[in-house]
Every structure is written in C-alpha cells, then in structure tokens.
Amino acid sequence: MTSLAEQLKQKSAQLAAVREISRAIARARDLDDTLDLITRRTTEVMRMESCSIYLYNKTRDKLVLAATTGLKKEGIGEIYLPHGAGLTGWAAEYRQSVAITNAFKDPRFYRIIGSGESKFPSLMAQPLISQNKVIGAVNVQTVTPHKFTQDEIELFGIITELAAIALEKAQSAHTAIIQEMHHRVKNNLQTIAMLLRLQMGQEKEPSPHDVLNETINRVLSIATVHEMLSEAGVDKVGTLDLIQRVTATISGNMIHPEANIAIEVTGNNIELPSQRATSLALVANELLQNALEHGMAGRTKGSISIHLSNRGSYLQLTVSDNGNGLPPNFDPDTDLNLGLDIVRTTVIEDLQGEFYIGPAASPPGTVVQINLPLRVIAASVT
Q1: Of 27, 116, 104, 46, whose CA–CA distance to 76 is shortest?
Q2: Which whole number is the average pLDDT over 112-127?
C-alpha cells in the first residue's frame, strides 16, 4: 500500500510536470512548434516511449497525424485514421479516454501499415476538446506492456486539456496568417495586373521583351518584400535593406556585364508595414528602371545614387543619376513615361506624399525626390 508521503510526492511531481508543460506551451511560437513541444514534453513527463497527436481534418473527415515522437516522422501529414477508427479514433468520436495494456488484442484496434506502431503494445488515448468541439486526439504508447494507473490517466487528462487549448489558439493564429498571406498575394497580383493594363494602353507600344523584363522586375521587387517577411518572422520590413535587395536584383537583370554603371544605396533603415513596404519597393523599382533605361541609355559608364532618409515627419527617397538628363522643355505634368507616372500616382494618391523630378544639381543628369508622411506610411493597412 502506498504511503501518504509517497502519494503526496507523486502528486507534487505531477503538478510540477503540468506547470512545466503549461509554461512550455506558452512559449511556443506557432502551430508546428506547439505540436512538437506537446509531444516531446508529454513523452518525457509521462515516461512513455511515444506520444502522437492527430488533428481532425474536416474536409477529409479523418484524424491526420500532426506530430509524433515514436511513430515514423515521414508519416506526419500522411498517416490518418478514418472517422472513429482505432482506439485513438474511438476516443475522439466518443469523447472518452481509453487505456489498454494490450492494444493489439482490442477489437477497436486499427493497424496502420508502415507507421511503426507495431512495437508499442500499450496505448492510452484522449480526445482533444476545445470549446465543446473535438479538434483531434492524442495518445501515448509504451514498448513493453504497461498497465496505466489512475494517476497516469488523470495526469494525461490534464495535459490533454492544456494541449487542446493551446492547439486551438495556435490553429486560429495559423488560419489567420494563411488568410492574411492569401490577401497580400491577391493584392500584389492585382497590382501587377493593373501595371500590365497600363502598359497595354501606352501610345508608344513597347516591345514584348521590354514588357516582360519590366514585369519580371516588378514581380521580383514584390517577392523581395515577402522574402524579408519570412526571414524576419514579423510584419515589418527595413526599407534600406529592401531597396538594397531590389537594387541588386534589378541591376543584375538590366546592366550589361561590360558596362561600368555604379549604383550606391545609402541612408536610414526605416521599418514599414508590409503593404507600405511593397509600395515603396515598386516605387524604387520604377525609379531605378527609369534611371537605367533612360538616364543611362547608350552609356557604358555612369553612376546612380539612391538615398533614403528620415526627415522627422516624413521619409525621403532620392534617386539621382549623372546620365543623359531630361529632354528640353520637359513638363512633369505631361511628359512622364509610364514608370514615372506609376511612381507619381503611387506617391500622391496612395501614400499622400510629394513627387518632384528635375535636373541634377550638377548637370547633366536627373534627380527624382519623393517625400512620404510617416503618419501615413508607418500605419498598418487593413
């Protein structure tokens, strides 16, 4: 018979384990982290050889393996239990716990060929329930036959409740991120489509090569924003880093290897929300393309300077070159090409900023300067 002191010691150890898992779950960053953490910690705390989490896939009406410490890792996302199948599926369907010393002999047992489960005779499973909704099931398994104690069943129940809450939150956040990602991609594709339509409507019909090359640069500029977002894991982008990457991409596409065109990017690395950063990337793309296509046309040597600065209440982007300069009697209200017209429209109408184009301080050459109010561009767009 277990003494009172031993019982208290066991309960204390269980509470410590629950606190540990609770703290660990709170530190998890996303759905995959949460799944991995729950299975690993549960395996350690319960002193079992395997812990597996199955999440309910509504479309397929199946429990799909989402994380495991004992089954084959390549089965994650592939192994599934049909509705109500197996001891784990039974626990989910009937919202009850199940603890079996010899699972292979139980009539509810469902063998998943190639899963690696054949080495685990004992199994305990619990449904994952959040807000009275079954979102999946979790099980633990042992290599040697094991009779699960009441304390183990209770501890597993507490862990499962914590896991269900954490996974519901993580899934909700994951869904929101996916929806936001699709929204951004749709908006960016619509922007590219709009630019192509504008190009089609030009009086001077560009060559297919020019259209494709300009479109490729625009797509790559937008892709650079998404690349930086994925690297940082946040919803803001450093604008100087962004423009440096856009510059490297465009110069690689447009400058002939034998040409000596120097491009310098300097200034302040101001952080902007992703959508505003995308607009700035397109502006920088158009200004640099314009400087290379027109300012440096027919030249094998020259320089382009791009400077980004924080002027307190506004962000200033200046692109200047020592190239061919503006045509005689140039009128910015009527003589802008498509790229510069896109810049002016984006700056004035979308970003509520100011646009200026004129001769460089030391002719020949051209300077374009845009001023963007930080109160507008630093605010998140919904």
Answers
A1: 116
A2: 91
